[in-house]
Amino acid sequence: MNNIAITLHNFxxxxxxxxxxxxxxxxxxxxxxxxxxxxxxxxxxLTFLERRVAGRIQSRIGPNRVGPQGIFQMLADGIKLVLKExxxxxxADKPLFRMAPYLCVIGVFxxxxxIPFSSDIVVADLNVGVLYALAxxxxxxxxxxxxxxxxxxxxxxxxxxxxxxxIVSYEIPAALSVLSxxxxxxxxxxxxxxxxQGAWPHQWFFFHNPGTFVAFFIFFTSxxxxxxxxxxxxxEAESELVAGYNTEYSGMRFSFFFLAEFANVFIIxxxxxxxxxxxxxxxxxxxxxNHIITNIIMIANFLFKTFVFIFIVLWLRWTLxxxxxxxxxxxxxxxxxPISFICLCITASFVLFFGGxxxxxxxxxxxxx
Amino acid sequence: xxxxxxxxTREEYRTKENExxxxxxxxxxxxxxxxxxxxxxxxxxxANSLWYLLFGTACCAIELMQTGGPxxxxxxxxxxxxxxxxxxxxxxIAGTVTLKMASRIKILYDQMPEPKYVISxxxxxxxxxxxxLGYSVLRGIDKVIPVDVYVPGCPPRPEALTEGLxxxxxxxxxxxxxxxxxxxx
Lengths: 369, 185
Prior knowledge:
The structure holds two protein chains of two kinds.
Chain A: H1 4-16, H2 20-57, H3 73-83, H4 94-109, H5 129-136, H6 139-150, H7 154-185, H8 190-195, H9 210-226, H10 251-276, H11 291-317, H12 325-354, H13 359-368
Helix pairs in contact in A: 1-2, 2-10, 3-10, 4-6, 4-10, 6-7, 7-9, 7-12, 9-10, 9-12, 10-11
Chain B: H1 10-31, H2 33-47, E1 52-53, H3 60-68, E2 81-82, E3 90-94, H4 99-111, E4 117-121, H5 122-127, E5 149-151, H6 158-173
Parallel strand pairs in B: 1-2, 3-4, 4-5
Helix pairs in contact in B: 2-6, 3-6
């Protein structure tokens, strides 16, 4: 099993010769620290990126005063949010109010455990990776609902209830569309799913068969909705509910919600890349003898693809108007779920008749016969 | 009984002396290299992320929207709007304040967490302006909440409001955040 923490553990054991349990604890702690701070930085960077992209789209400039091209804007925001007064409303349910942002952050950041950056760099390649990723990100809804209820504010509560309905509904099409991928690979492990694909577009699951082709769009739409992003941002609709579930949150607690949302953008983009676009797979001629260089190329490839999807998410946010609540529910229950079932059936028949070969492989096989 | 307002007893004199000593200690501490440079960094961070409340009372709000728009982009200076007062550092009073609205503005201001700043935009918010003689108009928002920067004009152009924000940034940068200044001895 390729596990970066175990590799580090072996390294520590060989070089420092300390107790096995202690070394395990140290290596897992270090890896957790590295990955969490990585996602924290990515989340902060995305706030800056979003504002710059928004600026471009609205023919503005966006933040450009702090550091070169405003790259340190997130530091300025961070400093300010830490220094702000931590305000807890008098009538709020204080323990729940305090706990809610942490639940959100934990839910999103824990999904990073199963996301493989290269063939070697993954915190834990769980054999139920897909299930884990889908399940743990749902913890966000608990945080949102808890925070909205504890705020004792009508706008918050409305936002929280909308969010709960939305996330729970959209979990179903997301899971169903991923299920067609699982049908092809026969494994729930992220690494197995990536290894079943190739570096070139015709080897990706996106082009595997018509079922997966449509399933990608369903997955991406429902992932956006689960993340409460525009066009599905009714939980924090500014024109209806003041700021939705985080109306009463100020300072650092608010920034935790913010960070969770932007980290979630990274998570859903990377999940889309892993399931449908070949993950870290690189062409054969790029795999060199040097293990480290190969890994770096894989990570670069993975992050490049992920950032393309992040850009698409930001692009959608500043292009599309917001859906109404009933339209949102109609879209999920009447359209996305039946279509994802059909996709599942198409993929299943493809796997049954062509033995798991992709559409293009079958086509080329017919021609060359 | 004669009034003893200006005559100091011995004890009063001593406490005053102590206060003076404390004050000089404060000054020494606040002029310390470490504190000043840390203060500078923190103030830079605070000044460059003044989020303002999505709030306008009258026609100046149209200019406020323009200031957020493409020509005079407030986002360049790190200022974005937030819809809820809990996440704001700055409230821009844009337009005439009626007596009925004044109490609401007070509530909004009180809901903002510290440190918070106020820009009074336009003549009406500054002093009543055109509607000065109206029976229902508050003559200046500074009668209700403390104002940091007054932007004159009827209405002020987006450039003027941007200038107001820059002046406020200067004010924030020159504040002492870590060591509180003593107001009086």
